[in-house]
């Protein structure tokens, strides 16, 4: 049945189901290699799901291209004096897509009761949402969510937590109608009903998914014109990067996320730009992506592994940081995809990032050797070998680092193990020196700095870092409503991390997009969210 619906749809939008090269409508086409497991926002646990859900639904608050929070379904909000209660005022012109779950198959206006239902569903154990963590131990245990009237929603917190606004922009917090969830039950995953710029049409699992323009979408452009400009979206499920890239070359896809290692050297120069032979064919987008790659160092002095390790010495950890030429690493191993992490743990792309205030480690082998000498290991003499655990895909990078450190007198043995085993060992504090990465879930530096809060277990505190001054600053930041003051607290915390060196920041990531020449106004943000409301196609 799904395939029939797909063909009917494309007979309208294309000259035929077999001829995708002559569209009569503006359809944006992209691919998801791993498929899409669900269109239920309560299960928006990975990028493929989040991208699709973002087209179909809205949240109270959203993140713009500059990583600033702005209203979406809510038009305004205010905090109580104690910072524990937030009242949201909803826009009054927003409707769910037309659907049979509503009376006479019509659309229905969104109310505050829908917000209460949607958020309550996330923490309902019967839903078993992987997103329950966003509210667990944060919202009030008795009346966390309340509709004060049809257009006013109240959220109560256990304690002040300013980053909650960023959390509310996550796709888990998309607003759904109770009628649809109850009517479709477990099939709600494949029968979404939202408020977003596009509405669901069909899904043939393993083949394709189709959305159409929401003709009644509430947003307008600066000239008062309706958006989206596109007529629809087609998501393909080609199962390999090679097939995906071929389809892109044949103009059967409009977009590719990231450049696969197999094609990296064909497409990109060492400085990360398109090679001349490709410049007239496609467009390349590069922008900061909220992911930091690093090596973690166990900081729990009570752990027997650390007691006899040179990593317990601050100057050894600092020497490791000074002994790596990150810029050369980015040039030769990454085609300059990303930025050498010479600031703190908080990456580029967040408003609180400030490389002038948080100064990290640059390449300084002379300083590294001096620190070794001060630690009693001049030129590395008598310094025990240090084992670095990584995963196979990063083995070459780890070997590069080991070679860099060998030149200053530090011997590192690289061992590549499966990712699941590495996560298990780091969670149980069974390894001293390990590869890690941290991708932001929401647009606030707290997302990164919580990694070192001593009251947090592993995850996220894989290093078991503990510092009372850091903890105090962290708790102050959670209650600070003034963004500028909160950013100063974040920067002070990041400085403590750099000074104590429980990590070796490697690079701040960068996202790459390949686009066809006829695609315009594709403007992502540092969360790498798929934003298609404003896209135009020639």
At CATH level 3, the topology of the largest domain is Dipeptide-binding Protein, domain 3
Mean pLDDT: 95
Radius of gyration: 25 Å
Helicity level:
25-40%
**CATH classification, class level of the largest domain:** Alpha Beta
The separation of the N and C termini measures 32 Å
Summary of the model, kept short:
By secondary structure, the chain is of the alpha+beta class. It is 28% helix and 21% strand.
What does this 3D model show about the protein?
- By secondary structure, this protein is α+β, with helices and mostly antiparallel strands.
- It has 3 domains: 1-52 and 197-254 and 518-538, D-Maltodextrin-Binding Protein, domain 2 (3-Layer(aba) Sandwich); 58-195, Dipeptide-binding Protein, Domain 1 (Dipeptide-binding Protein, domain 1); 289-509, Dipeptide-binding Protein, Domain 3 (Dipeptide-binding Protein, domain 3).
- Helix content is 28%, strand content 21%.
- The protein contains 17 helices and 21 strands.
- It has helices at 2-13, 47-56, 112-123, 164-167, 178-184, 241-249, 261-267, 276-279, 304-307, 314-322, 326-333, 365-374, 395-406, 419-427, 446-449, 468-479, 483-500; strands at residues 14-16, 19-23, 27-31, 61-63, 69-71, 74-79, 85-90, 145-149, 152-156, 198-204, 208-213, 232-236, 255-257, 282-297, 339-340, 386-390, 412-416, 433-439, 503-516, 519-520, 536-537.
- Strands 13, 14, 15, 18 and 19 form a 5-stranded antiparallel sheet that branches.
- A hairpin with a 5-residue loop joins strand 6 (74-79) and strand 7 (85-90).
- Helix 10 packs antiparallel against helix 12 (365-374) and helix 16 packs antiparallel against helix 17 (483-500).
- The longest helix is centred in the C-terminal third of the chain and has 18 residues, at 483-500.
- The two termini are 32 Å apart.
